[in-house]
Amino acid sequence: MNFGCYMLVGIVVFIVMLALWSRKSRKGVSLFYQKYAMFTATDPPQNVRDAIGVKDPMCLKGSLVPNSGGEVPFYWWEWSSSSMISTGQSIQHTISCFLAISFPPNAVSEKFEQIAIREKDAKRSLLKKLKSIYALDFRKPTRVEKLADGAFVIFWQIVQRPEVMEDKITWLKNNLSVPAVTTIPQPSAPQPQPKAPVMIQKSPKPPTNAKAIFYKNCTYAELCRTLSAAWPSLELELHHEGPKLDKEGWDYFDYDAILGDSTQPNDVAFWLTDETYAETAVRLFSDQYGGRAYINRGGYSVETRETIEYCNDPFMLPMNKYSYGEFKRLAVERWPNLTIELYDVSPYHGVLTSGYPELPADFDMTTLTAVGDPLHDYIYICDWRDSLKRGKIGASIKNNRLGTLCSGNEVNQRLKDYEAATA
User: Fold this and answer.
1) What DSSP designation does 106 have?
2) Mean per-residue pLDDT for 119-135?
3) 37-73 pLDDT, tens per residue?
4) DSSP labels, 51-110
5) What is the DSSP letter of 55?
6) How many angstroms separate the first and last alpha carbons of the chain?
7) Sign of the C-alpha dihedral computed for residues 183, 186, 188 and 192 taken in this order
8) How far is CA 42 from CA 46, 191, 315, 418, 421, in A?
9) Rounded CA gap, 53 and 211, in Å?
């Protein structure tokens, strides 16, 4: 084998490894959003959007409990820009990614604002200046701004990798603080007269629609079995809080671990119904039994904004169950603001674009043996695009309200959020 063949094999291996790394990185970013319960903001502040200065940045909403205590709401904004650079002999296409985190008026202390400003203005050593020529300094804010209404915004240039985003969360937890609350002394009220002893109440009686009842003293295994007995598609996970969970993403409780205090009465701790939101259920498990709780379906965390019953049996639109005409009809019924079209793109697997002949309405999709993931409300469009590489089907997804056609990696939104987008 000559040198040219070795080079060709090396290039092919590099491209394959790059594709695998890219997919793993995007999945890691999605799990990062789930880990910190960040969801698409339905009320992104317009003045922050104006300060960012781009047309349609992605905006998620969440909250953090800093090490200093309290709870701080925030908006997480991401966007990117592309540019062409001429090297004299060729033209290189570059993409730059940006992050802004904004806080509502009066949500953070003046102390934290000054920390962020000092971080931006900090002088760098000569070594760091030289290093920044070859590697992006994603830790140093590029801009800090307090808006007219009191909202506080911090900007960074980043690379979209989970570890970079985790670095931002860690920095926030270590430095965030809420404003001090000034209290006005009130006149002392007359002391109440002693009352007769109050009898200790028994544990509350679950309502008739309670589908799963959990007790104060039990094992981790009993918790898991109780949840899955009520909602067979769902699984409960409890993890110990700590460095291992933050680094590796797991630190399971022992399956036979005994929870609660066996010396105390085994009263009802809480119950769940079909209408309980998954977010509420997760919080109840964490508060009652400690650790960090997850409710999973098929190995992935469920959408916590939905009810447990929805999470147990969410709407799914498989790619190999209907004729194409029926598939398209069901898609329109579920997402009326989207137009989803499928194409035969063989041998150009995995594209998310238009321009190919659309499948005929009577095409029998049950004959497909290698297809993409089922469509559902909370699938990330870029992840679905990647899943199409299993077969010869390509697709386009158009937002009818905006008249925009999403393609490639530029749409890192869930299908339901893209359907609801108005700008």
Assistant:
1) T
2) 61
3) 787 787 889 999 989 988 778 888 888 888 888 888 9
4) HHT-SS-EEEEEEE--TTSS-EEEEEEEEEEEEEEE-SS-EEEEEEEEEEEEE-TTSS-H
5) S
6) 55
7) negative
8) 12, 47, 22, 12, 9
9) 49
259/243 Cα distance (integer angstroms)? 22
- In the three-class reduction of DSSP (H, G, I as helix; E, B as strand; rest coil), residue 327 is classed as helix
Helices 110-121 + 162-175 axis angle, to 10: 130
Residue 316 near residue 379, CB atoms below 8 Å: no
Instruction: List Cα–Cα distances, 35 to 32, 91, 166, 416, in angstroms.
Output: 5, 39, 10, 20
Contacts of 216 (CB under 8 A, 6+ apart): 260, 261, 264, 265, 266, 267, 268, 269, 288
Distance set, CA 21 to CA 26, 27, 188 (Å): 9, 10, 65
Mean pLDDT of the chain: 79
d(CA 145, CA 48): 10
Cα→Cα distances 381→146, 375, 405, 409, Å: 34, 9, 12, 8
Task: Dig out the tokens for 101 from the structure.
Answer: 């985190």
Cα–Cα distance measured from residue 343 to residue 335, given in angstroms and rounded to the nearest whole number = 19
Residue 273 identity (one-letter amino acid): T
Alpha-helical regions (H) of 76-145: 110-121, 126-134
pTM over 0.85: no
68 and 162 in contact (C-beta within 8 Å)?
no
Residue 363 backbone dihedrals phi, psi, to 5 degrees:
-65, 130
Amino acid letter, residue 95: I
The three-state secondary structure class of 230 is helix
Of 332, 226, 230, the C-alpha closest to 288 is 226
**Spacing of C-alpha 307 from chain mean position:** 18
Task: State pLDDT tens for residues 157-194.
Answer: 888 788 888 889 989 988 988 886 544 455 555 555 55
Question: Distance of CA 149 to CAs 49, 59, 76, 106, 363, Å?
Answer: 14, 19, 18, 9, 56
Q: Work out whether strand 152-158 and strand 91-103 pair parallel, antiparallel, or are unpaired.
A: antiparallel
Name the nearest CA neighbour of 57 among 13, 11, 25, 97.
Answer: 97
